[in-house]
Amino acid sequence: MAVRAGRRPEVRYPVAWINIRMRDRVQPTIVVFGDPGSEPILGVVTLEQFLLAADPVNRRLVSVPGRLKVAMDGLVRQGRDAGPMDVPQNGGADARND
Predict the structure, then answer these.
(1) Within a domain: residue 71?
(2) Three-state SS annotation for the chain
(3) Does residue 98 have a pLDDT over 50?
(4) Can you give the pTM of this predicted structure?
């Protein structure tokens, strides 16, 4: 991953997929490796994968409801969002609804 901050030169960081465990659940997630000694941060992608969000007032993680999101081309019909019946049953191979 490359990061450029203002006029500073581009900095490249290695990325990888790892399995992370929270309580009794294991979930693959992407990680970005920072400089040695940098503070580890639990990112928003990992939180969303575990259906968690930060509660900054009480300084804790809270459970949030999950939402099924379909990001396939062609699932919007006549200017309205696709409903659950519009999702193809074959894993998305026939995602176009022309």
Answers:
(1) no
(2) CEECCCCCCCEECCEEEEEEEECCEEEEEEEECCCCCCCCCCCHHHHHHCCEEEECCCCEEEECCCCCCCCCCCCCECCECCCHHHCCCCCCCCCCCC
(3) no
(4) 0.53
